[in-house]
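Thread: Newbie trying to understand structure tokens

Hi all, I'm a second-year student working on a class project, and my supervisor (Dr. K.) asked me to get a predicted structure for one chain before our next meeting. I've only ever worked with sequences, so writing a 3D structure as a token string is new to me. If someone could post the tokens and maybe explain what I'm looking at, I'd be very grateful. Here's the chain:
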Amino acid sequence: MKVTRFYIFFFLSVFFSCSGTKYFQQASTKAQDCNQFSSVLQPVFTHEYYAGQGIKYFQTMQSDVSVKVQPNYSDLVIRWEWPPWLLLTGFRKNGLIVTDIGLKLNPTAYDLLDCRYFDTQPFCRCHVVFNYGGTPCPIYEEFTFNNQGEITFIEAWSDYESLLPMKNGDDGKWDESEYWGMKEVNRISTKIPGLGNETGRIDPRSACFKDAAASDKDIADLLMRLGDANYQWIKQTLTHSKELESGCDIPMGDVYPYFR
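---
Reply by user tm_fold:
Sure, no problem. This is what the structure looks like when written as tokens:
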């Protein structure tokens, strides 16, 4: 990640993102809703709709695209970006819109923008290569939706073999299904209680969410960060600045591109 983008994102997040469990006051706490996982939801819209929402998401950060181009976010949308990024990097619709528009201030384009539809959650998955003024940054990103077609959860990884949630086969080569996360994938989105109810509105204060956090370290981490997202984000920014500045670099021992 370029230093310029890092500081733009830092200041915008401090001033415009909101945090705290108070924003879940309208969330459903019914037991049958709370225990629903995203994998139970079936697609409601067209293939083109889901892939198009992923493309619109990335266009919100593209410098030469109008700020009027926005994906269909849920009001409680969450963005989770795995290391070297800062895990909970976006919370609530307004926070994502403002921070992503702000990233247009740093020249942003794409060398690759490949978003595709899948008939199981996450319904949209994208391999992209950001171009920050000449600096490439490969990212793999997934989008979970509710029955209203709103994006409820965004999950991202640096698109390098050692940092991805899926692995290649025994032959050491990547096939199409592995590349697109269609086999065994270690993602958090399918483990979040409540994300699979009709609206995808989770309630971190609910008993089932706390029970899930007690048995899963990733859910526990998400629960902790949602309690005070800004503080946790700023804290991690200050302690992980070196990792962020080199976040787009190819990890030692990795080969890129790894799939052709």
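A couple of things are worth pointing out once you decode it. Confidence is low (pLDDT under 50) at residues 10-19, 25-29. Residues 3-16 form the longest helix (14 residues). Feel free to ask follow-ups in this thread.
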